[in-house]
Amino acid sequence: MAADPAAAPRQPTDSTNHGLRVVVAWLILSAIATPLVAIYVGPLIPPGNASVQAQGQVFTNQVMVSLLTPVLCLMAVFFGYGLLRFRVRRSEAVLDGPPLRNDPRVQILWIVITSAMVLFLAGFGTYELLKDGSGGGQGPNPIALPAGHKSAFQVQVIGQQWQFTYRYPSLGGMESNQLVLPANTLVALHVTSLDVVHSFWAIELGAKADANPGVDNVAYVETKGPTVFHVRCAELCGLWHGYMFNNGRVVDSAQFSSWSAQEQRIFASIKHYVNRDAPFAHIYLPDPARRAG
Amino acid sequence: MRVGVKLLLVCVAVAGAGVIIGFYASNLTTLAGSPAYSVPVQNSNGHKVVNLEIQTVAAIGPKLSRNPDWVSYLIHTSRGWKRETVWNLPANATVHVTIFNFDGASGLRNPYFGRPQGMVGNSILVDGKPTDAVDPDDASHTFAVPALGLILAIPGVADDAKNQCGFAPCPMSNAHRTIKFTFHTTTPGHYRWQCFVPCAAGWIFGFGGPMQTIGYMDGFLNVSA
Questions:
Q1: pLDDT per position as a tens digit, B7-42
Q2: How close B207 comes to chain A (CA, Å)?
């Protein structure tokens, strides 16, 4: 038996232009929130300001958050308006809403806007990465080379269960358990591992590179003024992974000279053995003569 | 049942589970696998002094572990030698350490760790002789507290030494090396210590079993005020 259309509850007529209301509210909220987020929240986003690359990452995050804010505002206004305006009170009967109809203009607008945003972010991200590598590990043959990379200060980062040590080829292959870098200097970090996969993450420097055994993973960072930064392993690497961290320092040239002289004095007694068993190389995998395993 | 009551029950259950997991993780990171041993503290002119006697053995033996063939550290307590690697120490104290090593050499993976550092004078006594570098090939184990910058390599017993120890506890009549050094504890905290030598015989690259289990080749210094 066919249903009688006349018996169904009639849809209440509503002449309010809800779409226009949502768009106006969204534009007003976005116009207020976006500059506030860009100016006040963006600069607070990690990693910090200890290197040119870290500064670039903060700028990238600032741009992305600024783009994200209007999208977030649209979602908030849409849901907020819907929840408040179309809420059914307990005393009211539950009625079905008007049918949703396809509108090609809305669909095209949505596709165009989201595609433009995604393509812009892809292009912007690629540009930022290719500019100087953004502090990321680029493997043994980097393609995003910062200006002056040939004269960059070389430091080898050696991961082992569970500590990073640092080797300075320009200081006679000196190795130290402290990462100390000269200020305002382009540094080439050659990251490798002696055992399992680690990940070197100098947070405020904006440097992050996987430490793979037998691989020279190169990352560039240009230090700024003297500061202290945190170093962590960012790859689950065994029992004491959570304890694989320490602090690094960026110091002025006088302090760096003083520190390196002191470290070289300490290193002198082991230099012969280090150079004998593990002569400096970008791929550094010493194999103990009488390994237990 | 009302939705509000259901939500409340879910929140209480999640909070309860969080507390239990928190206690478990806290216990795991400070004590797991090894009960804490409070090292006796002496007073010398108002300064706290601790004498820490430890030994390293190639095999812990059936009396002290369910894994009798695992390499391990032991500590000398008032109850004898025990496999306890979490040690309670006072802050800002002088710690005199004596290590008796009954194990042979495995070799350092990173020869840099052959340089004693972080102890008084950046030097250790090996069988009574001052040493500021240990041949990486002769290293048997290391004792390292990375957060304190303390690291030293422990030379092994010669391969052809007579009267070698089979398994722990090893009497002093067995062939051994004696290493002595002094370091200072600093501020209170949990400082992890470990061996850097891949010394777990029978495991891939020497890095499994006792190297990945608290209570054998690693532990904590629980430094408190």
A1: 999 999 999 999 999 887 776 655 556 778 999 999
A2: 7
The tokens of A30 are what?
């976005």
> Is omega for the bond preceding A240 within 30 degrees of 0, making it cis?
no
Nearest partner of B92 among B148, B35, B152, B36, judged by Cα: B148
State the helix-helix crossing angle for A52-85 and A104-132, rounded to 10 degrees.
Answer: 160
The residues facing B104 across adjacent strands are: B157
d(CA B71, CA B77): 19
pLDDT tens readout for residues A232-283: 999 999 888 999 999 999 999 999 999 999 999 989 999 888 887 777 777 7
The torsion angles phi and psi of A52, rounded to 5 degrees, stand at -60, -40
Q: Which of B104, B133, B201 sits opposite A269 (nearest CB)?
A: B133
- Distance CA(B144)–CA(B151), nearest Å, equals 4
**Nearest CA distance, A276 vs chain B (angstrom):** 9
Q: What is the ipTM of this complex?
A: 0.82
Q: What is the pTM of this model?
A: 0.83
Q: Which of B13, B75, B24 is nearest to B50 (CA)?
A: B75
